[in-house]
Amino acid sequence: MTPELKARIDELVKSNKVIVFMKGSKLMPQCGFSNNAVQILNSFGVPYETVDVLADPDIRQGIKEYSNWPTIPQVYINGEFVGGSDVLVELYQQGELQPMIEVALAS
Questions:
Q1: What is the 3-state secondary structure (H, E, C) of 15-81?
Q2: pLDDT by residue (tens digit) across 14-63?
Q3: C-alpha closest to that of 75 among 39, 28, 45, 106
Q4: Nearest Cα to 20, choosing from 41, 51, 58, 45?
Q5: Integer CA distances (angstroms), 95 to 12, 40, 48, 60, 89, in order
Q6: 3-106: which CATH topology?
Q7: Nearest CA among 66, 72, 74 for reference residue 4
Q8: What's the rounded mean pLDDT across residues 65-76?
Q9: How many Cα neighbours within 13 Å face the side chain of 42?
Q10: CA-to-CA distance for 84 and 74, rounded, in angstroms?
């Protein structure tokens, strides 16, 4: 990964309390896993940003290296990598995701 790409991803992660690197957008997810992540976040009614990795091949590959996680979507809360769709679903079902988001938004 180039230093420029790392700096771009760093800026996106650090400047958004909740951000999802996904296929498509929150208005039009382009895969089921990305849709799962969007539906969970929408259920909380909190602000979050998305980055469409299909529109930027550098980000699509770079985010996998950045997090050392092989799949998309990738969710970051308060600058920390949380996981993909499966991790988000698990945290949601265990009631652990909403407090994480609330703490991030309050900070």
A1: HCCEEEEECECCCCECCHHHHHHHHHHHHHCCCCEEEEHHHCHHHHHHHHHHHCCCCCCEEEECCEE
A2: 999 999 999 999 999 999 999 999 999 999 999 999 999 999 999 999 99
A3: 39
A4: 51
A5: 26, 12, 19, 30, 10
A6: Glutaredoxin (3.40.30)
A7: 66
A8: 96
A9: 12
A10: 5
Token pair recorded at residue 89: 């679903």
Domain ranges of the chain: 3-106
CB proximity list for 18: less than 8 A, separation 6 or greater: 41, 46, 47, 48, 49, 75, 76, 77, 78, 101, 104, 105
Between helices 85-93 and 97-106, what is the axis angle to 10°? 100
- Record the pTM: 0.95
**Residue 100 DSSP SS3:** helix
Place of tokens 């994480």: 100
* Tokens describing residue 41: 């976040």
